[in-house]
Design brief:
Layout: H1 2-24, H2 36-66, H3 76-87, H4 96-99, H5 103-120, H6 127-157, H7 178-196, H8 205-227
Length: 228
Amino acid sequence: MPGDSELAVQEPDRRSPGTMEDKRNIQIIEWEHLDKKKFYVFGVAMTMMIRVSVYPFTLIRTRLQVQKGKSLYHGTFDAFVKILRADGVAGLYRGFLVNTFTLISGQCYVTTYELTRKFVADYSQSNTVKSLVAGGSASLVAQSITVPIDVVSQHLMMQRKGEKMGRFQVHGNLEGQGVIAFGQTKDIIRQILRADGLRGFYRGYVASLLTYIPNSAVWWPFYHFYAG
């Protein structure tokens, strides 16, 4: 029928502007619009909750990657059970206290990104330029903080009762409680300094920069292109 034909043609035209508007007009929240107190408090709290949940599997993955063949563990579940039996729950969280300092890098990433966008806005109003520069700069700052912390925490992950796994071995017991845990951290830091100097804390730094800076620099312009 002619009436049905007209409706079939008109209906997409009537809906499409609204669909495009819902998809494209995404509000971009700039740095000055943020509630800084809520942002930092809730951001750290949420990240910490996630970190507590996944850290044991990060530790297991690291040990599986480092071990020779299947000399200690035959897989993820086998490693989980053996670590739990040998060291208890604390064994699944070796290096966790040190690793939590990487939360700082996440906050520094966002802060650097937003402040750099604001700075670049004085020279260019292009969202692509602002996002490209800010994304790369934020990743540079974040990785400069993260890599040394990761190096120390990964060496702590390698500590276990019995056979040595990593390059360094802490002295004393491995109960991983309170002062003892930070005593292990100091021990690892001293051994890294003695063996490799300050450069020892930045093993893999260039590789990290080459991985994360391009990724961050490209991701944000695409986000703003979609949202704009």
